[in-house]
């Protein structure tokens, strides 16, 4: 099958390679000419036979909206756009509406797998009309992990369902990572445990907390047992925030995901104004000692 792929960053570059290994023809476009197969979006569209399928893998928000709008002016009726970035599901509905007016189909696809997807395959969560999903199924089958289709692929529902599912997936990921991180810190603080990396490595087999994320933590500890080479500063991609917003909208309690997101916020503060206020209050009502700025 032939596919146009817009965005050849860490994910898109490896996706192109995995698809080519599976025998598909992929024409990729990126602003970096060293990795691009086309000189522009217009050139990419010209290199594809109709009816075309174009997959977008660019940053969420304005870059994705701009790409969708530009493709809407270049593609023809009967073509199909797959948006595989981390767009918010509400954006998908606007993208689909814009393209539908031109007779162009739209599918949103949440993609998980990171830089390991080339070899391991990608977990795919798809939203859109069944006819569009079926049309792109050879591409999805090549990208997903080997094995039963339902293990690594889901047609989650209509437009937006794929990215909504990926949003919740990433919210869960926040909570899992935070739990492992807190466990690491507690082990490291203990005077009883003298070999923290060995303990965490032992959890990889036969325990109820084993997972791929745990395997990745072990890998990090193998190269830096104390994680001293890193600064404890953690960004968030936005999907954790969206997950909490939707939990509020649906009155679904999500204390673990919420706490994990707030922990990331705390990681970016060299000196917390909130904790300065707590220190001041303890000093005022109880005379508790405080640490002065600069000391």
TrEMBL record:
EC assignment: 1.1.1.343
SMART domains, alphabetized: 6PGD
UniProt-listed InterPro entries: 6-PGluconate_DH-like_C_sf (IPR008927), 6DGDH_YqeC (IPR004849), 6PGD_dom2 (IPR013328), 6PGDH_C (IPR006114), 6PGDH_NADP-bd (IPR006115), 6PGdom_BS (IPR006184), NAD(P)-bd_dom_sf (IPR036291), Pgluconate_DH (IPR006183)
Highest taxon of source: Bacteria
Alphabetic keyword roster: Gluconate utilization, Oxidoreductase
Domain 6-phosphogluconate dehydrogenase C-terminal: 162-295
Family under the similarity heading: Belongs to the 6-phosphogluconate dehydrogenase family.
Name by which UniProt lists this protein: Phosphogluconate dehydrogenase (NAD(+)-dependent, decarboxylating)
GO terms of molecular function: oxidoreductase activity
Species for this entry: Allokutzneria oryzae
Entry keyword annotation includes Nucleotide-binding: no
Enzyme class: oxidoreductase
Gene3D superfamilies on file: N-(1-d-carboxylethyl)-l-norvaline Dehydrogenase, domain 2, NAD(P)-binding Rossmann-like Domain
